[in-house]
Amino acid sequence: MPTDQIATYREFVRLHTQLADEAARYKNEIQALLVVLFPEFSQVFADPCRSTAVALLKLYPSAQALAAAGVETIAAKLHELAPHNYGHKTAQQLVSLAQQSVSSGLAIAARSISLKILCDQLEHTQTNLAQLESEIDKLLTADNRAKGLQSVPEFGHKTVAVLRAELGDVSRFHRADQVVAYAGLDLEVKESGKWKGQAKLSKRGSGRLRRILYMAAVRCIRLKDSAFGAYYHRLVARGMKGREAMMAVMRKMLIVAYRLLKTEELYDPAKVGAVLVTQPLVVNAI
Fold first, then answer.
1. DSSP class of 50
2. pTM of the full predicted structure?
3. Phi/psi of residue 196, each to 5°?
4. Residue 133 and residue 154: Cα distance in Å, rounded?
5. Mean pLDDT along residues 35-39
């Protein structure tokens, strides 16, 4: 059974994942509606789902609505929403684009209502996400075992929280390869008779853990001073395929996280290359 602390991590992390997925879905639907309601909107707001753009779309959810409002009204609203970023010039550009928009005239009223509701849902979801992230930060601050994980530059707060939630009490693992297998990052080969398949990840265990490690691995290979990134590029230089090297980095990160939690030490990037990444191989008969 998880401790109260681990159970709290799991509750927060799983709700955060759910809300983040909902926010992503709302953003996709907003952008899809804008294609027919005001496709030129992105010429002014490269990200139509940023807070100022969403607040404006709630009031004027179509090219026709923006054009009817006029420059002065839009300028006043932009000044109210973001006085240091947008002004009269932005309002002029928006209204001009709205007047010449190639937007579809089909079901404007219904689609405008849909856009308003989606923008409202996105705002509420993002507010709840911010509140939840604040609670996660408080939990991490009070968690001495998380200090080692937080000392890893490549691990953000969400990554640390997921590692704490999904790994739980690491004392139940006696070897690093057990942690690798627990996360589903071990390799397995399926075979039947004389046929033998390729070695692939078993993908057992926590999908959340694999997902957060993948995201952390993607970030680190782009960082100039990342020990994990350097490890990835060494593997690729030796001839390993990019995908395989990425999986190796994920295993490396997982083992480092396990060692830090078990020893309660702080992260030392110099030791990353010295950590062995074992890959237990399981053969499954079909």
1. S
2. 0.82
3. -135, 125
4. 18
5. 95
